[in-house]
Design goal:
The complex is a heterodimer of chains A (about 230) and B (about 325). Chain A has about 230 residues and is an alpha/beta fold. Helices cover about 35% and strands about 30% of the residues of chain A. Chain A contains 10 helices and 10 strands. Chain B contains 14 helices and no strands. Classes of the chains: A alpha/beta (about 230), B mainly alpha (about 325). At the A-B interface, helix 2 and helix 3 of A face helix 8 and helix 9 of B.
Chain lengths: ~230, ~325
């Protein structure tokens, strides 16, 4: 298996404040890789650095063997990096269907199209002509993921997808992530929900105060209660 | 089918009102109706930027003036037949000018963009006033000739303007509902999200700016034919400001809102202007009331009441 995404020693800043220190990991093709950490640990910044919304000042981001530092966020999307942002808000004034069609803007084709999406997310079909802002939080999260899938990304970046969702929706989301994984899409997930992470991920890294402090496959992570206590405060 | 009907209702109202003016209107009311449709086109084109894309340009008068001066000067120099050609050249010139100004100003965000558009428009106004040998200076240009068939009273010119304005509004309406229109609305709501979907935000803003500006120039060119005279006031900042006010008055979140705002504003100006010399004071009070109490404009208010009705009767599909 070759590496789809390589994050090599990146340092990222918000203005003068140094947020990421020498962050280093790689995501193999087809795997689901989970970035864990507390609030403020640097998960979202890592994601923003990968899509070049917060370009790293040092280090490299390599996607499919090609360095993407210096590209614009929309280039990253066209190459096949699909980000599902944490603040899941959709385009509330647009209809659900228009939201989905916007997702095709990356110009990439593949498994996901409107029919596939509606088959997999029947709720979106029911709402297709309604403003997306009228849906519940969980449904909006589904729409955000569906919109990103419409761009047929090669790697899906899910930033804290379970945050604020009801247990029922978390279950729905778990099945969805497993389905996307089954289709062969590489997934990079950030989470605080340990159960969810263990249910879907193959490998886990933990980030704390901007440093990568732990890296293991999910089987070892499952056993490692000390690490969970130390870095994830359970 | 229901959505089809609600989509078409504003068009039906538009044609019933403006076509009936051809037959029912006096010279004065035809003159007023001409102003309404032409400024209505200006306001709807402006709203592509403002209400749709979320870009507040305080300098769209530059393109209105550009269209008017190109039409006026060409017709004056080359004869009446060139009036129609000028109406085609005006939007092309606006496209070129807006491409340059857009590249310079759209890099800036929000209030800086607004101030820079204002500065460009004031610059153009200054040139227009000072360079009197070329532009006619403060006096503007009078007695602009137009083809004979458009000259017989105001009615023929009104019909001509109505056809052109209707085509333009239809094109902008299609644009509003196209995927491109969705992207513009997405940019208004969250430009960063649009960028990681895979779209170049700057390029889309620039296209929106160029499209809006070229339709504005058509409106300016048509205005040159109403009274056969144009003046530098068409470029001054209060012109841009009036369009912003009329758009807010009508409702910037609705496609036809700006046209309604223009109609109400001009009718108020006409009616109140006849009864008091303090008409601008009265209109000012009305504007402040609307902005404070009904920030969504006239269309927003009527949707609100339609929504109340729908809750009781359950018949009206609130758009």
């Amino acid at each position: 298996m070759h590496e789809t995404l390589l994050v090599q020693n990146i340092h990222s800043y918000y203005g003068k404040s140094h947020i990421l220190f020498d962050v280093n990991f790689s995501v193999k093709k087809g795997e689901t890789f989970c970035l864990m950490g507390r609030n403020g640990a640097g998960k979202t910044t890592t994601f923003k650095s990968i899509v070049m919304l917060v370009p790293p000042k040092e280090g490299k981001v390599i996607f499919n063997g090609k360095e993407i530092n210096g590209l614009k966020p929309y280039h990253a999307a066209r190459l096949g990096i699909g980000l599902v942002p944490e603040d899941r808000r959709i385009f509330g004034d647009l209809t659900v269907k228009d939201n989905l069609l916007l997702g095709t803007s990356s110009g990439r084709h593949g498994y996901w199209n409107l029919e596939q999406i509606y088959e997999y997310f029947p709720i979106l079909l029911d709402y297709q002509d309604k403003p997306a802002g009228t849906m519940s939080g969980g449904e909006q999260q589904m729409l955000t993921i569906a919109r990103t899938l419409m761009g047929n990304p090669e790697i899906l970046l899910l930033d804290e997808p379970t945050e604020g969702l009801s247990p029922v929706m978390v279950k729905v989301l778990k099945d969805l992530v497993l389905k996307i994984k089954e289709l062969g899409t590489t997934i990079l997930l950030s989470e605080q929900n340990i159960k969810f992470c263990m249910a879907v991920a193959d490998r886990v890294v933990i980030i704390d105060k901007g440093h990568i402090v732990y890296q293991a496959d999910v089987a070892s992570f499952r056993q490692d209660d000390d690490v969970k206590k130390k870095y994830l405060a359970v | 089918m229901k959505t089809k009907l609600t989509e078409m209702a504003p068009w039906l109202a538009y044609f019933v009102i403006f076509v009936s003016m051809i037959f029912a209107g006096s010279d004065h009311s035809i003159h007023v109706a001409s102003q309404i449709i032409i400024l209505g086109l200006f306001a709807i084109a402006f709203n592509v930027l403002f209400g749709t894309t979320g870009l507040l340009s305080f300098g769209q008068a530059i393109f209105y003036g550009l269209g008017a001066y190109i039409t006026g000067m060409m017709a004056k120099s080359f004869g009446a037949d060139f009036f129609l050609w000028a109406l085609l050249i005006a939007p092309v010139a606006a496209l070129a000018l807006s491409a340059v100004l857009g590249v310079l100003s759209l890099r800036l965000s929000e209030v800086y963009f607004t101030m820079l558009t204002l500065a460009f428009a004031q610059l153009a106004w200054g040139i227009c006033v000072k360079w009197s040998s070329f532009t006619g200076g403060d006096d503007g240009i009078q007695a602009i000739p137009k083809p004979d068939i458009l000259n017989m009273g105001g009615r023929n010119y009104y019909i001509f303007a109505l056809v052109i304005v209707s085509i333009c509004i239809y094109l902008l309406w299609r644009l509003d509902r196209s995927p491109f229109g969705s992207v513009l609305k997405g940019i208004r709501q969250n430009p960063i999200r649009i960028s990681f979907i895979g779209l170049n935000v700057f390029r889309h803003k620039l296209f929106a700016y160029m499209i809006s500006s070229s339709f504005t120039a058509i409106a300016g060119g048509l205005y040159a034919g109403i009274d056969k005279s144009i003046h530098p006031d068409m470029l001054v900042w209060t012109m841009s400001g009036s369009i912003i006010l009329m758009t807010i008055l009508g409702g910037m979140r609705s496609f036809f809102g700006p046209l309604i705002g223009v109609a109400v504003f001009i009718l108020l100006e006409d009616v109140i202007g006849r009864s008091t010399e303090y008409w601008s004071f009265v209109i000012g009070i009305i504007m402040i009331t609307v902005v404070l109490l009904f920030p969504k404009g006239i269309v927003g208010v009527s949707r609100h009441f339609a929504g109340l009705f729908a809750k009781k009767g359950g018949q009206f599909d609130n758009p």
